[in-house]
Design the sequence.
């Protein structure tokens, strides 16, 4: 008796089936989107580089985040360690200086768009964020969120007081006026490695 051949599988349509499955998974799978902050990057440096303006000590707030994710805030030689939950209120006090505190940024009269006219604002304030290379991204993200949140809260309060509605419901001109009243000035230094 002769040996029988074992019939083989027909593999001619395997590539087609694989291609259809690939398309199915690409269409039905959701892709993770990157999380991050929407930050406007500075313009590239110009050829006629000028020295940066001198910043008075009372006009700068330095936020340091170390490798252990601890936050140290320095304003006019006064330093203290704080929790992330305290940062927004501290930044709001620094930016607005409602009591005209001599240790916070000086209030300078500035001509602003209607309806504000000439108002004393902390025009020359700067918030400097400095981190360690080992700072966790989550902590960095939370610190950034609190700093930008301070500006957003102040603009929202100003819009409600001046225009009778929240900032997000303002017209483009009203939003521009609020942004000029509380101009966002956050400077980020290149991360350093402090634990060497």
Sequence:
């Amino acid at each position: 008796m002769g040996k029988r051949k074992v019939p083989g599988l027909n593999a001619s349509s395997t590539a087609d089936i694989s291609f259809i499955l690939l398309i199915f998974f690409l269409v039905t799978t959701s892709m993770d989107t990157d999380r991050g902050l929407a930050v406007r990057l500075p313009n590239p440096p110009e050829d006629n580089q000028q020295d940066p303006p001198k910043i008075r000590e009372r006009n700068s707030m330095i936020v340091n985040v170390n490798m252990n994710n601890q936050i140290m805030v320095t304003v006019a030689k006064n330093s203290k360690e704080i929790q992330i939950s305290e940062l927004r209120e501290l930044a709001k006090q620094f930016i607005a200086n409602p009591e005209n505190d001599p240790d916070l940024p000086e209030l300078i009269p500035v001509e602003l768009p209607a309806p504000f006219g000439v108002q004393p604002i902390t025009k020359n304030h700067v918030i400097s964020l400095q981190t360690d290379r080992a700072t966790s991204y989550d902590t960095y993200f939370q610190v950034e969120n609190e700093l930008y949140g301070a500006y957003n809260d102040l603009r929202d309060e100003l819009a409600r007081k001046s225009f009778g509605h929240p900032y997000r419901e303002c017209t483009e001109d009203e939003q521009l006026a609020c942004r000029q009243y509380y101009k966002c000035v956050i400077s980020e230094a290149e991360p350093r490695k402090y634990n060497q």
The longest strand covers residues 60-65. The beta strands are 60-65, 71-75, 78-82, 108-112, 117-121, 126-131, 186-188.
